[in-house]
Design brief:
The chain is built from one helix and 13 strands. It has 110 residues and is mostly beta strands. The strands form three sheets. The chain has a five-stranded mixed beta sheet.
Length: 110
Amino acid sequence: DGEFYEDPRCQENETCIAQINDTKYISLEGALDSAIDGDTIFMINNTTESVVNTKDVTLDLNGYTVTGAEDVTIQNNGKLKIIGGGSLENDIGTTIVNRYYSWHKTKRNI
């Protein structure tokens, strides 16, 4: 619809974590849920959460860190390109599980 939307919680003392174009989100999961194929999601803060991707998107870590809150940091069921010189971490499990393979390192620098 072309309208600008920003999660109002970003303005209510909640930290924005990710951004797609001009739209900011309080979680990476929220950004992934809202993304459409071809979007680039820019990290704008560190986060601790575990997410599932089902889209064809690029995740620009932008120097930030995504730390898994559960056994898997990113469950990738779509096409995910990760760029931007940050890191994926998980102290208790796996950083990325793709449909076909997983990275079992506790820290993955990108």
